[in-house]
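step: validate -> pass
step: tokenize input -> pass
step: predict -> running
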Amino acid sequence: MGIFYKFAFMDDKADQTRFTDPSGKWTEIEHLPEWDEKYYHIYTAKKFGKWVMMKTLRPEFRDDPAMMAMIEKEFEVRYNLASPNIIMINDFDDVPGVGKAIITDDVYGDSLAKLIENGEVDESVLIKVNTNLVDALDYIQQNHIAHHPITPKTVIFTENVRNLKVIDVGFDQLDHISQKDAETDIMAFGSILQQTLDALPQEVAQRHARCRKVAKDAMAGRYADVQELKMALNNRKASRLGIFIALFIIIMIVVLAWLTSIVRPD
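step: predict -> pass
step: emit ->
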């Protein structure tokens, strides 16, 4: 699991290894070992004074052509993604002391997992899970992005404004995604929703019995696609609107047909 953001709660576990760049382009390069992945190291740094995150191959993999092709492929796939709820990649650069690295936006904040652990989940977090996270999921599926499972650890809420961002998204782009992949995403969302509801204060959670049912149905694979999920989260408002529109169209057709039948040419 990859974390590409600089934590406000970084503690003494953070590696104090730092690198310097004589050109001044890169400053405050720092390794964050607790957020490393199986094949990658994660760093935080400033590029021309702006905070970014970096993802680079571990030293033992850097001379492996297949591993280098893997990170290049991830950059190519994710570089063209453009969603307000997905962390953006902006460069693939050679960084002094680090090597070739994927450069991402810096998302300063806490993961949903951390909010749950600290008892900091409130109704605004639930609302963003029900809207922004579903929109991110919809975008991923529409663009046929193969990705690691979305979990509370890969859902980030930025500091202050608490924007929701999904990280670790996309290592390949497919011609299409299978129905099974789509259902797996929805089931993962159901689990995240359930965990969010469980972390709410009891009096708040009681107001969201419908969301709990949606979470249960999602985990059971009862939604065929994200659109069905959205309709369920909207308490069937979308379906009622669709029925109203359909009835209106039928009535208009009947009226027009009646008017046509009573109007005869001279």
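step: describe -> Helices lie at 65-79, 112-117, 123-142, 179-199, 202-205, 209-219, 226-233, 237-262.
step: cleanup -> pass
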